[in-house]
Amino acid sequence: MTHTSSTQAIPETASVPRHIAIIMDGNGRWATKRFLPRVAGHAKGVEAVRGIVEACALRGVEYLTLFAFSSENWRRPADEVSVLMRLFVTALEREVAKMHANSICLKVVGDLTKFDAPLREMIANAQRKTAQNSRLTVTICANYGGRWDIMQAIEKMVAAHPGSTAFTEEQLAPYLSMAYAPEPDLFIRTGGEERISNFLLWQLAYSELYFTDIYWPDFDGAALDAAIASYRQRERRFGRTSEQLVETKKAS
Ligand code: IPE
Ligand code: IPE
Ligand code: MG
Asked: pTM of the entire structure?
């Protein structure tokens, strides 16, 4: 299935965002504030993921995308990286059956070649098991980088069109790692920083951006509702004028 590209046509919008993408930031500071080791914040962050997946399913969100580990996070101390990997494994072990029972489809995107074979195997099994589920698609971005995504898509596109030197957006789109989803309607970053940190660079072209100071472990259903309420106040113009939007609304 192909989705409308926000730069090629005007996507349909609704009061509940179809696709929410989140940079789950602030785990370390959440822990430090409590005189706990940073990894305690990551463990608490996994619980927040569980809550937000459930909250999105209840609110009729179709796609939830979570930035769990960036291609730059390998720069962290080795022991923090290994705890993050272990948490990922335990979360998969514990949550996949529950997600499947709730008709949630799980996808993991990113450069998975950097993960060890048993983890890659778990990811493949989880994706296979939940592939047919349609209530909510949860994507975990792991060893993901927006630039990596664009580069790997270009490589595949060029290989698929030998001899071609000119390309279009439409030709690139199917090779982006989230080609199965519409572009995010709402982007949320917790933890107070206001930056993209190499998340979905291509796909965020026309997403509404929402930043909150709440640390990720504290981000709950009420915080999600505040983000959705802010989203509802926005006028998504996709390049048009406000007056044109009023005309379109009158006509429909
Ligand atoms: C986000 O929390 C989780 C990951 C990047 C894996 P942080 O670990 O970045 O928390 P802060 O930003 O240091 O508080
Ligand atoms: C972004 O958070 C990556 C994830 C949440 C996985 P970071 O904490 O790594 O981002 P920077 O380094 O502050 O930009
Ligand atoms: Mg951070």
From this structure: 0.97
In-domain check, residue 227: yes
Say how many C-beta atoms besides its own lie within 10 A of residue 204's C-beta: 17
Q: What is the pLDDT of residues 66-119, one digit of tens each?
A: 999 999 999 999 999 999 999 999 999 999 999 999 999 999 999 999 999 999
Residue 140: inside a domain? yes
- Ligand 2, atom 3, lies closest to the CA of 70
For residue 200, give the nearest of 21, 32, 72 by alpha carbon.
21
Q: Find the domain containing 65 and state its range.
A: 19-251
Q: How many domains does the chain have?
A: 1
Q: Does the beta carbon of 140 lie inside 6 Å of ligand 2?
A: no
Decide: 24 in ligand 1 pocket, CB within 6 A.
yes
Q: How far apart are the first and last CA of the chain?
A: 26
The residues carrying an active-site annotation are: 25, 73
